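The instructor's notes for this session suggest beginning with a concrete chain rather than abstract definitions. Hand out the sequence below and ask the class to guess, before any prediction is shown, which regions might be ordered.
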Amino acid sequence: LKRWFLKTVDEIQPDILLMNLAYWDHLMDHSRFPSTLRIIESLDLLTLNQKYQRALKKFLPRIPVRATEVNESVLEENFFGRFNFQADPEEYRIYDQYDYTLAISEKEADLIRKNTRKTKVLFLPMTQEPQNISNCYTGHALFAAGPNLFNIQGYLYFVRKVLPQIQSKVSDFSLQVTGRCSRFIYPESGVLVSGFVPDLKPFYEQARFVVSPLLGGTGQQVKVVEAMAHGVPVVALKTSSRETLPVQHRVNGLIATNAREFADYVIELWRDKQLCSQLGRAAKETIAGGYSRTHLLEGLSLIKNTAKNQIL
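After discussion, reveal the predicted structure:
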């Protein structure tokens, strides 16, 4: 693969090389392209993500996982705080070989800046255009999740620590889980597991709100930004939303610090369609202001100008 990559680059002689993730830097031979503008896109700190997932995997039983089988310690809000993991120095060394490093998380952009000397780091959040749909806020609560361990842990946290508190006060509550995460979990009472769906738009149209009970992770929670772009408010945990999510408490969503608060906010939104609508509109405005294609192109203009000067 490396031979093919270098051969292709030699044939094309590109003005710009854009690499995705530090993992794929192994294809590069930087000494061969000293005058080519090189950019690397960091979706998250790869080695930090791997350390978190390896640690979490040790605490989880075999999948699919039942909430009753999970040790209570893996569902603590400060679960990841006990490890004090850092990204590998080698990953920062890779970034430093590129003219620009793009990060979609402001927190991780700051970490890369502090641990590199040469690369110029740009915080460019993921692009998500606001969607004009007919939100009714009368359907299920929604948890759209891929098959990574952070989502599985978040689901287990919700059904074990949050859901019982909700059901003790709201008998008709229902949570709909979509995405490939569904293959690794068991449905509980009040939970509808729908699996992968090709288009989430109909689900966003019906959803009252989205829950994001993640205890940790790296990069950006794509489905949270996507839900907000569709005018759906999000209930998130402070452990995962601080510094990484565009959710502002009682401005465009709700942020809980523990399971009791999470349950209270879910109940509040479940009973108040008007509040769902109010926070949903503000959520869409947030995405329009900072996550649109226009915002992305403004950020990339700096690189474009650098490329022109370098070519000239």
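Then share the key points. The longest helix spans residues 149-167. The two ends are 32 Å apart (CA to CA).
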